[in-house]
Amino acid sequence: MPLFRRSKSTRRSRSAPADARRAPHPAAAGAAFSRLASVRTLALSAAWILAIGGAVLGASIGVPALAARADRARPEGTIRVHFPGAPNWMTPQDLAPLEETVRDQLTGSPFDQEGLRVAADGLRASGWFAAIEQVERTTLDSIEVRAVWVEPTALVRDPDGDHLIDAEGRLLPRSYRAGAAPAFPRIDGASAARPAAPGMRYKGGDVDAALAVIAAIADRPWSTQVAAIDVSRYRRDGVLSLRTGRDTVIHWGRAPGEPTAAEVPTRQKLSYLQFLYDHYGRIDAVGEGTLDVTGDFVGSRS
């Protein structure tokens, strides 16, 4: 018979502490999970900070580097300036100063927007444009100008030559020796001096009166037979005369838009000249001398 007997309850009491070590307390597990979540949050925050900082640093380094590389890549030769839609009457000699106006304002950098803006202002001041729509760099060595051009309408003759103007009486930056200009109607005898700069209008009213006649006859097939409009009597008497290529003088009278009971209306004057053209092929078919179209009957005298 054994001297000692091991109690079953004793075995159970000794095994209890081991079970307790294998199953941690719920409060301790929650604290550990919270610490782990905090560590993950800090890690993610640090990653975002590093990513944003890297992007900012890359931009601060990369953009100037790109700009510097673009500056180094700019062409060494002359920048080409294009005017799409330029009218046929603009010669290469006329376009050359406009091209230089653009080039003079450019630094060569493709990022130079200020130079393009100043170039547009210079083109506006040239007198050739009714509006500048856009000046843009299309390639490193090419500039394109989109604009609305003025429409040359007549020449004003003075002792210095023939000076081109538009339909509003604004001086254009083109003058010719007397008789060397293209075939535009000429205005003789203007009372006011030539404007000081392109884009400025002739004063005095007589040039405007001549332009009104030019507009009235513009769509007539015989308009090219009118070589000049004499406004020398306009300030004193308010009347105009037309001179044909054969030196026939047509007493026109008052300008369109300035009616008087002493004259037939503009449409009647046009009808008289149209009759001559339809029947004889020329409005000066009467030959040299003077033709008066201001009354109810057309009269001529040598």
Would you kindly provide a written description of the structure presented here, covering whatever features stand out?
- With 302 residues, the chain is an alpha/beta fold.
- Helix content is 39%, strand content 22%.
- The protein folds into two domains: 80-149, Ubiquitin-like (UB roll) (Roll), CATH 3.10.20; 152-301, Cell division protein FtsQ/DivIB (Rossmann fold, 3-Layer(aba) Sandwich).
- It has helices spanning 8-22, 26-73, 92-103, 113-124, 206-217, 234-237, 266-280, and strands spanning 80-82, 129-139, 142-149, 152-158, 161-166, 171-176, 186-188, 226-230, 240-244, 249-253, 290-292, 299-301.
- The strands form two sheets. The chain has a nine-stranded mixed sheet, covered by helices on one side. A three-stranded mixed sheet has the order 1-3-2.
- The longest helix is centred in the N-terminal third of the chain and has 48 residues, at 26-73.
- The model is unreliable at 1-21 and 66-75 (pLDDT under 50).
